[in-house]
Write a structure and sequence with these properties.
Two copies of one chain form a homodimer. Chain A is of the alpha+beta class and 356 residues long. Chain A has helices at 18-29, 60-69, 82-89, 98-104, 107-116, 130-140, 167-173, 229-245, 279-282, 287-295, 322-325, and strands at 10-14, 33-38, 51-54, 72-75, 120-121, 124-127, 144-148, 158-161, 179-183, 189-197, 203-205, 209-214, 217-223, 250-259, 262-269, 307-315, 331-335, 346-355. In chain A, strands 5, 10, 11, 12, 13, 14, 15, 16, 17 and 18 form a ten-stranded mixed sheet that branches. In chain A, helix 1 (18-29) packs across helix 10 (287-295) and helix 2 (60-69) crosses helix 3. Chain A is globular and about 60 Å long. The mean pLDDT of chain A is 95. At the A-B interface, helix 1, strand 17 and strand 18 of A face helix 1, strand 17 and strand 18 of B.
Chain lengths: 356, 356
């Protein structure tokens, strides 16, 4: 795809959750239609899409029909089955590139990729057996965290080890899956860079945000982050290095630990990212539009930050606060239209804006 | 409707053009679904709506089914047939109120209403016959403008009279419809106030914008408008007086001429308004969300202006400028997804933003 998609063209989106919803809203601003593919009917993205396919990701006939009906395909999550990508690859371009999905789908591949790029990661070792885990605890030290190499997010598929006595239960929690043992990083805080790359290689990064997690779930992102000018430059250059190495097209999120020894990459996500939601009210062009622009072959927009923002996720019962939040000044609500409020479920977010 | 609509409730929108589209996008931010009713299939709003009814406004069965499927009804244009409102009135609440539609549907009723409120309008007289027109030209003077009392917008259904010799052709252009003869107002520039009122009577006005028309079509709106502090206060108070007199719920646009004798009301529009599109990039909560909040029984949001903005409409061949505009800093594109570009057709707009 070398020519920009014209008004009326259709973006195909794998995944119908809140990220797909906000991608669809951004595409609409550019006059583009969206066709959402998701196993669940009537999800957040389906409510605002021009067309919807309700089918499983292993329904290859449905994927082929979807591919034939759209002009480009993108995804709101990284765990797209390889067979699904195979089924559409001959018919329609898809972004971000497959190598980015394959890299971020597997913690071992991802960390190796980052180290090969000359970037710092937490110390890590592959763990398949109890012996591997014993050796890793010796080499890397305690405390540490054991994570499955694939799947798992928001604290799922992870076990913390404080002493060698935790080894057995931690390994059991992996349920036989290959895992990575990671040493803890002594960091002062976490920041993330939301970076975009266009097909012509142009890169644009949003100002880094500072993230606060609780129970493994992102709670708030604040811009500006606490970073020195040198750290800010490092963060942006490092994100650009990752994008270029992957010949990336679209938006990618890079989570970074700020330490006395520099920035350590926690993980990358080849998609729009929860920690970039502040851009909706802090920039003229937000992360969702930036992603759509990139995958549609448009020039990247102006992502300069015009305001200070704190983004707060609304999780589960936080929805009870909506009537009060709706009354607050400088406050923009973004709700996802999920039918059912459940504990731990991301229901929306709020951007609290302070013009600079 | 005294309780705010919850997440997942459905807004019904009469009219599927760009205003309906941007209302639907704003509703989505609040977790609300939209059901669009429009005679044309696949229009700008249908592309982003959860449900669509494609039917004529005189198809009362379709209107009754639509009313039964939604939680509240609103409109993107003022010329809703009375029978359509009758068909839904028993089933579902609708905002803005009918009296606002009836007032703004008829220039004679509108100007009389405004004068009765103590507001200034251009001098005017009702014209049904050639004799009426002769008398109006004598009473009000030349030049003047003859307009049908109903319908007509963007310069349609209007005829300018520079001399008495123009009377015959001007009257012919009315095609037998009742008309209003208006004297010209000696004004320096036009501004508009976009004002919102909630069911509990709370009123919130956006900062007035300054409008530039060409060939009867709005080209640009710029904030801040050239107004003295006293004029700014007058503009806002005057808009609030109109809203209160109509017991209004929703957003209303008020076009004002700035003259040496004060502000003269040109016309009111009981809906979101083209001259309020700048709010999308100049405020935390824009006119579309403010309208949705009002009709959904939510508190009005924070419409304070955080940036200077110039909104420029993209009309017809202006679409050829999109690739260049997409490359400009401080520039937010809003395209309407219309399949066909036609001369004089509003295809999108661009907000050029300058943080204050």
């Amino acid at each position: 795809m070398t020519n920009p998609l014209p008004t009326g063209a259709t973006i195909g989106i794998f995944g119908g959750g809140q990220l797909g919803r906000m991608l669809a809203l951004a595409a609409a601003r550019l006059g583009l239609k969206c066709h959402v593919f998701d196993p669940a009917a009537d999800g957040p993205a389906a409510q605002v899409a021009d067309r919807v396919t309700t089918a499983a990701f292993d329904d290859l006939d449905a994927i082929r029909a979807f591919a034939a009906a759209v002009d480009v395909v993108t995804y709101e999550f990284e765990n797209i089955p390889a067979a699904a990508l195979d089924a559409l690859a001959d018919t329609v371009p898809h972004h971000p590139p497959r190598v980015a999905l394959e890299t971020s789908q597997d913690r071992l591949i991802e960390k190796t990729f980052l180290q090969d790029l000359g970037l710092q990661t937490a110390p890590f070792a592959k763990v398949e057996t109890a012996e591997d885990l014993q050796q890793a605890m010796i080499d890397i030290g305690l405390p540490g965290i054991l994570k499955t190499t694939r799947l798992g997010y928001d604290g799922k598929g992870q076990a913390r080890l404080n002493t060698v006595d935790d080894a057995e239960s931690a390994l059991a929690a992996m349920q036989g899956a290959t895992a990575v043992y990671e040493g803890f990083v002594d960091f002062s805080h976490e920041v993330s860079v939301i970076a975009a790359r266009a097909p012509d290689g142009a890169v644009s990064c949003f100002d880094p945000g500072e993230n606060l997690h609780r129970e493994g779930i992102l709670r708030t992102t604040t811009v500006p982050a606490r970073l020195t000018p040198a750290q800010r430059t490092d963060a942006v250059l490092l994100a650009a290095r990752i994008l270029n190495a992957l010949n990336y097209v679209g938006v990618l999120g890079v989570e970074l630990f700020v330490t006395s020894k520099g920035l350590i990459v926690n993980e990358i996500a080849p998609r729009v990212h929860n920690s970039g939601h502040w851009t909706q009210n802090g920039c003229t062009v937000d992360q969702f539009e930036q992603h759509i622009r990139a995958i549609a072959g448009w020039p990247l927009g102006d992502g300069k930050r015009h305001s200070d923002v704190t983004m707060e996720n609304l999780i589960g019962d936080d929805m009870a606060r909506v009537p009060d939040l709706a009354n607050q000044p400088n406050t923009a609500l973004h709700l996802y239209g999920k039918a059912e409020t459940r504990a731990g479920r991301k229901m929306g977010h709020v951007n609290i804006v302070k013009p600079t």
